[in-house]
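Propose amino acids for all 365 sites.
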């Protein structure tokens, strides 16, 4: 899903929301030009995506506020707690990124403050692009902050492949630049922060898989927070069956199991219906073994070819000679990220990166 293609999401910035912002701004700044703001913000609103609407709010405020950046930041500081949506609050850091480029110290302080109301992850990136060393130094300080929102921004803001934003080519080329931030956060107590660290590392696996593997092989997994980050950071490599990644999570060995009763029901569906996957794994080993179980669907493309998509199923320890039933229900429906086409869709069971069996289901026109 993308921000531009989701009509429900962009309605976060509808006319009623613009009026709410105007009313709250008027409450903290009595001289605020409410009619001028609303006229500017509502121009061609229906044609704008959610991120374009977010930027429009920022630009509309700038159009009617006095030319005093310091005073405007103070007004926006007062506005932030009065807004009724975290996502909507993201126009505040956007304002800083758009109009605070010449006031680095004050802009950094504003982004740190605003991120607790609506993430500053997009707004920090122009500063990284224009002055990478100076901005990374600030993020390293933020990685030690007591506030989880600020710590999360330290990792999320410098993700090389952050969705909905431009890539940070310098960090994409050299992940060592942001490594001190990730090291600082590798056992963070906040799940919110850990998800960001894992996603950051997963981004790096797209360009430097060996760098990530070498670093994570040096991390102790005795701490549960670190172990959680490592599992999720390696998800793309594990789906690819990467042996080093599987070994890090304790599933590097070839699986000693037998696959039983693999089936998908119903065998024929129409778009929008559900398939039910079921099977069992039986151990043939004399000792327990760690298993990472995934399944892949070969989706039919418009050209008639196929494209595989791997789904996580279960990671568990199977005792010696034990049997484990497994299953999953999945709706087959249109997504903004995937179109479905009629035809035979193969489904494969993957255990520790090895394909153990296959079946198929048919999507009717």
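Proposal:
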């Amino acid at each position: 899903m993308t921000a531009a293609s989701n009509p429900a999401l962009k309605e976060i910035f509808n006319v009623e929301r613009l009026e709410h912002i105007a009313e709250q701004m008027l409450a903290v700044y009595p001289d605020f030009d409410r009619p001028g703001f609303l006229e500017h913000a509502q121009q061609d609103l229906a044609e704008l995506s959610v991120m374009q609407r977010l930027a429009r709010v920022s630009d509309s405020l700038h159009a009617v506020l006095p030319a005093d950046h310091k005073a405007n930041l103070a007004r926006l500081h007062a506005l932030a707690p009065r807004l009724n949506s975290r996502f909507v609050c993201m126009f505040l850091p956007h304002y800083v990124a758009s109009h605070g480029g010449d006031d680095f110290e004050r802009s950094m302080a504003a982004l740190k403050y605003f991120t607790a109301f609506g993430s500053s992850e997009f707004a920090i990136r122009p500063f990284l692009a224009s002055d990478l060393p100076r901005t990374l130094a600030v993020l390293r300080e933020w990685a030690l902050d007591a506030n989880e929102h600020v710590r999360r921004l330290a990792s999320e803001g410098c993700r090389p492949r952050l969705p909905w934003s431009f890539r940070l080519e310098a960090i994409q080329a050299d992940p060592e630049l942001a490594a001190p931030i990730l090291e600082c956060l590798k056992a963070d107590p906040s799940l919110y922060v850990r998800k960001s660290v894992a996603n950051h590392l997963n981004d790096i696996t797209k360009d430097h898989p060996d760098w990530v593997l070498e670093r994570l092989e040096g991390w102790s997994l005795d701490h549960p927070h670190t172990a959680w980050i490592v599992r999720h950071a390696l998800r793309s490599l594990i789906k690819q069956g990467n042996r080093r990644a599987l070994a890090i999570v304790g599933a590097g060995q070839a699986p000693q199991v037998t696959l039983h009763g693999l089936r998908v029901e119903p065998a024929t569906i129409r778009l929008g219906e559900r398939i039910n996957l079921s099977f069992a794994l039986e151990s043939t080993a004399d000792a327990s073994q760690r298993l990472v179980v995934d399944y892949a669907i070969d989706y039919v493309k418009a050209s008639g070819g196929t494209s595989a998509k791997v789904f996580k199923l279960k990671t568990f320890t199977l005792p010696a000679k034990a049997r484990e039933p497994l299953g999953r229900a999945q709706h087959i429906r249109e997504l903004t990220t995937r179109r479905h086409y009629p035809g035979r869709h193969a489904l494969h069971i993957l255990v520790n990166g090895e394909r153990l069996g296959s079946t198929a289901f048919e999507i009717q026109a």
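The chain has three domains: 1-123, 158-249, 257-364. The two ends are 24 Å apart (CA to CA).
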